[in-house]
Amino acid sequence: MQQLDLAGELELRDYIAILRRRWAWVLVPVLLIPLLAALMSMRQADVYTATSRVLLANSAAQDAIQGENNNFFATNRSLANEINLANSDATGAEVAERLGLDSAPGGSITANEDSDVIDFTFSAGTPEEAALYANTWAEVYVDVKQSTAQSSLDGTVDQLEETLTELRAERSDIRA
Question: CA-CA 20 to 30 A from 58: which of 18, 121, 126, 174?
């Protein structure tokens, strides 16, 4: 057995001698770690992701009554409000009901600040299931949004009719 020169620096032959004696400590982790990673990845279930996109746009009637708002901060705040509406418990409960589940599926609802599009992204064990979750959540959001817009417009029409009635009464008083 060759003695290592501990007083001086190690030479190449000293490193080779160390590797010959300790080959298992080098080779086993190099082979074992990739093998374990491959086994773990093969045991994992497949996960599929689907995304549905919804364009946010006011109707012409809403723009006429409420006015267009091109303010950057108001637009960002409006976008945040839409995401909150999409993420609301009421929306989630309706999604769960439509899907026949005990609770709404987990996913992410995001928006790009540079556009007026909301992305509904969901993952599941099959592509069909992921698409069903994303599409159902987007559909429920659109339904809730339309219902909210209809209620808002109905309220505005009621206010306008009330104001019109008052103005007609004032006009009658002025003519009299």
Answer: 121
Question: Whole-angstrom Cα distance, residue 176 to residue 159?
Answer: 26
The first and second tokens of residue 51, run together, are: 């995304």
pTM over 0.70: no
CA distance 66 to 153: 10
Q: Is 106 helix (H, G, I), strand (E, B) or coil?
A: coil
**pLDDT tens, residue by residue, 93-142:** 999 999 999 998 989 999 887 888 999 999 999 999 999 999 999 999 99
106/137 Cα distance (integer angstroms):
10
142, 143, 147, 150 alpha-carbon torsion, rounded to 10°: 60
- What SS3 class is residue 122? strand
